[in-house]
Design brief:
The longest helix is centred in the C-terminal third of the chain and has 30 residues, at 474-503. Helix 3 (52-63) packs across helix 16. The protein folds into five domains: 3-46; 47-64 and 466-520, no CATH class; 65-80 and 368-465, Chitinase A, domain 3 (Roll), CATH 3.10.50; 105-120 and 260-354, Chitinase A, domain 3 (Roll); 144-248, Chitinase A, domain 3. Strands 3, 14, 15, 18 and 19 form a five-stranded antiparallel beta sheet that branches. It has a four-stranded antiparallel beta sheet with strand order 11-4-13-12. It has a four-stranded antiparallel beta sheet with strand order 7-6-9-8, sandwiched between helices. The chain has helices at 10-19, 24-46, 52-63, 86-96, 126-135, 161-179, 184-191, 195-198, 214-221, 258-285, 291-298, 321-329, 365-393, 398-405, 430-435, 474-503, 510-519; strands at residues 3-4, 7-8, 65-73, 105-113, 141-142, 145-154, 203-208, 232-234, 237-247, 250-251, 303-304, 339-341, 344-354, 410-411, 415-416, 422-423, 427-428, 450-452, 455-465. The protein is α+β, with helices and mostly antiparallel strands.
Length: 520
């Protein structure tokens, strides 16, 4: 970076530093700091070694396997065992009543100004038609496209080279037949491996750029109607292409698209007219909040919604956030500004507001019952699982204990420590992935309850498979030695940094302290 013609150039050196907004003093100080840091790191790492025992342990940890038996108890399977009494429900509801609080709800009275109602009132002139056409040129774009047919001799990428050569030779033979005057469509019907187009004489219909694989597209769009390509190779095989029609890119003129322009402009102006009528109604009646008068003037039916919350749905309008938010802030006898929706322009006023409140138990009894059952089912499932764990710890067999409790025993299948924190068929559980390998040789019970994805899981070791030491050859030992050395070297540096941090004295400059105090 600092050389010219292979020789250090001070001018080049200063120029590069200036571009990076560095002085030579700053850059050289940085280099000295990096050299010192690198030297210290080298010294810390130099004393790190890896023993044969560490390599053996690493290999064992990576390759030892276990297979677990497990029973998974879900709260849902205990819900039918929950006994529900009116007294229990009343107590539960009293303790959890905030959970069942009903949010504030409101209902509306509204007028719906639908654009279609005003279509017949719309008028426009030639200038407006021209402006609409210019504003919406993308709607009248003519894409470059061609209509083509092809004959495909299939030869996928994995096809043997000898076979590919045979396929290519056959495609070239067919090309000669096409050039000699034989009917392209008939040759495609008989020989093409593209079944979908073969029955149509190879016809692919119209397509634009980007629709076909690159080599095919490049060949097709370089041809004129009536042209026959040479053999074109793609990932599908070998193609012979016949271009039948070509459409140049461009924009349809106003004359060619007049019907669409008129329809679009008419719809646009109808929406604008609907909004203007809604705004007129709002401005005339906003002080009185009189929707009836607005309805009469505009010959519209006055509609009403049911009650809805902030996260709710408005009958006849839908989930319109703007209307929902405005409705909850709206005062009585006031009109809200019209809002444009998919269902027209909505002018509305508040009909009713029901404050947030704790309902009577009878109003939400089904919800309270379901919640109570779910809560109690969790307790029952956990208690049953804890009983299994206790019996396992006393020397029981999970298979026998599960049979007694009519639970299903399943297997995780074999897995190693490297899966951690994932346990096959159970999901993520760092606790279990560690505990499974900490059980002493000869023991099977894991006297611990695991909660995984809202299930209570009880496990025992079904099988422990020792690491196959025959796989620990010299190459593997060298690989593990390199991995362990790198890890220990990084740990040595990290430990030294932690020591320095723990003994360091941090001094905050007065000006910085003033800034901190001001922030507080």
């Amino acid at each position: 970076a600092f050389q010219e013609n292979g020789v250090f150039s001070k001018d080049r050196y200063l120029q590069v530093l200036a571009y990076q907004r560095l002085s030579s003093e700053q850059f050289e100080a940085m280099q000295r700091s990096e050299l010192i840091t690198s030297k210290v790191r080298e010294q810390l790492q130099a004393g790190v070694t890896v023993t044969d025992e560490e390599i053996d342990e690493e290999f064992r940890n990576n390759n030892e396997k276990v297979n677990l038996n497990y029973v998974s108890l879900t709260p849902a399977s205990f819900e039918k065992k929950v006994k529900v009494t009116d007294e229990d429900l009343a107590t539960y509801f009293a303790e959890q009543q905030e959970v069942f609080r009903t949010p504030e709800t409101v209902s509306l009275r509204y007028l719906q100004f639908v654009p279609e109602r005003y279509i017949d009132e719309v008028t426009f002139d030639e200038i407006e038609l021209e402006k609409y056409h210019r504003r919406h040129l993308d709607q009248f774009e003519i894409l470059e496209k061609i209509k083509a047919s092809h004959i495909l001799i299939k030869a996928d990428e994995g096809t043997d080279e000898t076979v590919r050569e045979e396929k290519k030779a056959f495609a070239e033979k067919l090309l000669e037949e096409v050039k000699s005057g034989k009917d392209f469509a008939e040759l495609a019907r008989v020989n093409s491996d593209d079944a979908a187009s073969a029955v149509k004489g190879g016809n692919l219909g119209y397509f634009t750029r980007g629709s076909m694989v690159k080599p095919f597209e490049q060949a097709a769009f370089s041809m004129k109607p009536g042209d026959i390509s040479e053999v074109v190779e793609t990932t599908f095989g070998y193609h012979i292409i016949k271009v039948e029609e070509y459409t140049e890119p461009g924009v349809r003129s106003l004359e060619d698209s007049m019907d669409e322009v008129k329809a679009g402009l008419r719809q646009e102006k109808a929406k604008q007219l609907a909004f203007e009528k809604a705004m007129d109604a709002y401005n005339i009646n906003r002080k009185t909040g009189d929707l009836e008068a607005a309805a009469k003037t505009n010959e519209l039916g006055l509609k009403e919604s049911g009650l809805f919350a902030r996260d709710g749905y408005i009958d006849g309008i839908g989930s319109n956030a703007e209307i929902i938010n405005a409705a909850h802030l709206l005062e009585e006898n006031k009109l809200a500004k019209p809002v444009t929706t998919e269902n027209g322009i909505i002018l509305f006023a508040l009909k009713e507001r029901v404050a947030s409140h704790i309902p009577e138990l009878d109003e939400v009894k089904d919800l309270v019952t379901a919640s109570y059952q779910a809560t109690e089912a969790v307790k029952l499932a956990k208690a049953a699982a804890e009983e299994l764990v206790a019996d396992l710890a006393d020397g029981g067999s999970l298979v026998k204990l599960a049979k007694r409790g009519k639970y299903t025993v399943e297997e995780t299948g074999e897995f190693t420590r490297t899966y951690s924190p994932f346990v096959p068929r159970l999901g993520t559980s760092e606790e279990l992935s560690i505990a499974a390998f900490e059980i002493k040789e000869g023991e099977t019970a894991i006297d611990q309850l695991f909660e995984i994805q809202k299930r209570f899981v009880v496990v025992e070791i079904k099988e422990r498979i020792a690491a196959d030491k025959s796989l620990l050859d010299e190459a593997k030992r060298a690989e593990l030695q390199k991995t362990i050395l790198s890890r220990k070297q990084n740990e040595a540096v990290a430990n030294r940094l932690e020591e320095l941090r723990s003994t360091a004295t941090i001094v905050i400059a007065p000006r910085v302290q003033d800034l901190i105090n001001k922030e507080k």
